[in-house]
Design goal:
Blueprint: H1 11-22, H2 29-54, H3 63-70
């Protein structure tokens, strides 16, 4: 499922999005924005992983990280 939204971007970001499409790096503006948001989502998940690791003991088997990772989609992009 997808939802259409309107987003206002600064001129330089809009130009970047258009340049990505023109250069063939993405098929559409929506693809560029989607890719950027997916990267932000992965970044946030990595920050959550860091917080888990900061709270583990040296002899911990990373059970908390494994439980957390088990509920995250696998994205190898």
């Amino acid at each position: 499922m997808s939802m259409q939204i309107a987003v206002r971007l600064p001129d330089e970001l809009a130009q970047f999005v258009d340049a990505e499409v023109t250069a063939g790096h993405a098929p559409s503006r929506a693809a560029v924005v989607t890719r950027a948001l997916e990267r932000e989502q992965r970044y946030r998940a990595a920050l959550a992983d860091i917080e888990i690791l900061k709270n583990t003991q040296p002899d911990d088997d990373f059970d908390a990280l494994a439980r957390h990772a088990a509920h995250r989609p696998l994205d190898l992009d």
